[in-house]
Structures
1.
Amino acid sequence: MAGAASPAAGAGSVDSTAVLVERLIAEGRSVAVAESLTGGALLAELIRVPGASAVVRGGVVAYDTALKHSLLGVDAGLLAAAGPVDPAVASAMAEGVRAVAAVGGHPADWGVATTGVAGPDPQGAAPVGLVYVAVADAERTLVREHRFAGDRAAVRRQAVAAALALLADALDAFSAA
């Protein structure tokens, strides 16, 4: 993963995903993911870390645009007007997955979402490499736009790394607030 050392990385390297999961465990905060272009890779990256089951609730792969509405509650009018590759859609996905991953009536503390175009072809007006990642907690939502270069696999890897980085940034920013 870009931005995260692999489990086979050399001695002394920092596994940023493991650090992130360990921080969630230490804070007692849960996370759920809603993925489109990453197709489960974000969830896979989180759960590759031993102990992740203490904080990772699960995820929804809403690859089909209609599932963003039916499973995650993204407004159908927004999807019709903006399409699936839009910052408001990413935000709604992150907010929606918190509720979808509720356990005992309690939503996940964090929702993380990815939506974009991995290629090889553009999607409507959205070019290949355009990706939105979003992170939501109970009070606020952050979304970032990215324009990644590379082939389909590279765009997807970069999207996973960007989503994890945004979650780490949100943990820092929201904890300080």
2.
Amino acid sequence: MSRFFLLFSFFAALATAADTIKPGVRSPITFKTSPQVSDNEQLKMRMHAAETPPPYDVSMEKFDIIVPKKYKKGDPHGLFIWISPSNAPSISPEWEAVLADKKLIFVGAHNSGNNREVFARMRMAVDANDNLRELYDIDDQRVYVSGFSGGGRVASMLGVTYADMFTGTIAFMGTNFYTDIVSLDKTEVFQMRYIPHDEIMAHAKNECRYVLVTGEKDFNLKNTSAVFENGFKKEGFKSVELMNIPAQGHQPPKGEWLKKAIEFLDGKK
């Protein structure tokens, strides 16, 4: 079988997949292949991981996608790649409306919750990013990764280790960092969770934008506040914002806070 035929079949399959997705409606989507950037060697290099990631096949994974109703070819939209703490990539209708208004295509993986090992959760986000660029007109300056709680922790790592693929990160009520972090009251130490590649980390510091979201009643408030001050700020990240929501507990906040976070990533603040 010729290489031309294989490429033709691949792109034809992608086009067919896009045609079955109705804008404005949450739809299932699957992908057949993973890019080289999410293979074992890349993951190990980007995180300085000693262990080899376990077997993984993106064609066995399922995703949900929501394309804004007004999306049209030739009008680039951003990507909002969601990492859930649970097995279903759920967000509220209020959030869906915000993403549509901000011209962001939502995608989230099933079976990517806190019970799944971290390498697979990272690979699914990277794979969705790469594959959707073949299906839709994507604004390369608006490719955002986000998550809540444990999903926020994974998103915070991806936003640094894959800074060449994600231009912005929103970590809701959970964030990790690559150095040990002392709490602001100096009573606790939060251990480092990964070691990024030096060149990619430099790109993250200078070119990417980050929002850490917590709340007055969030049990991760101390952790998130310390990572903001003694992590991102201390390490010299140029564009990072902390949002501490009044009276907010450990739940996804109202849509207005998602909107504010997106506007920071868009450079509107």
3.
Amino acid sequence: MQPNKIVVLSGSGLSAESGLPTFRDSNGLWNQYQWHEVASPEGWRARPEAVLAFYNERRLKAWHAQPNAAHAAIAALEAAFEVVVITQNVDALHERAGSSRVIHLHGELAYARSTGTPPLRYRIDDAPIALGQLAEDGSQLRPDIVWFGEQTQYMDEARAHVATAAKVLVVGTSLSVHPAASLVWSARGRAEKVLVSLEMDEIPDGFEFRRGKATEHLPALVRAWLAAPTSP
């Protein structure tokens, strides 16, 4: 365990405070769309134009969203700690707030990738992807997003980071999405572990649960961590 290392596990509740919709709550995306039609390989094969339209809209909204106070607080931790952010979110709000080390488990809206093997990856920022828009390998471009039925990215790397962190902060997730939720099981028993969320069905062992918005809890928590000396 590295005494100066903090790992942050973030979910869609954090981005929701910047105005981006979540997936599973009462106003979530999966109450407006059928996930298997717009977020699965089967949906892509059946109606690629609908999938592209869905992600083009999400990409534009994410591009215009602004980092909130919780994003800024997480970035501020880098003044005194080694910080690794492991996020289920596909926006770039962590990076835009100043976080320099971010692992995206589910992909990134600001990128497109080819449908060839191996896939080619392109930075597109807020630009739409059109049907018929091809990569250099001649294959159709698609969103660089992990769909249902596809393998979550960087899980081994993420587990290794959680296992070596002296502090683990979970924010904006109810830990209901797997396998990402299983990362909390890698946290060491001696690590300081804090979970900030609006609701939780079950609190993982050893975590201090702070119910509420990330923007309400994180600035004060980060100030306390920055003010306290690091234990050897």
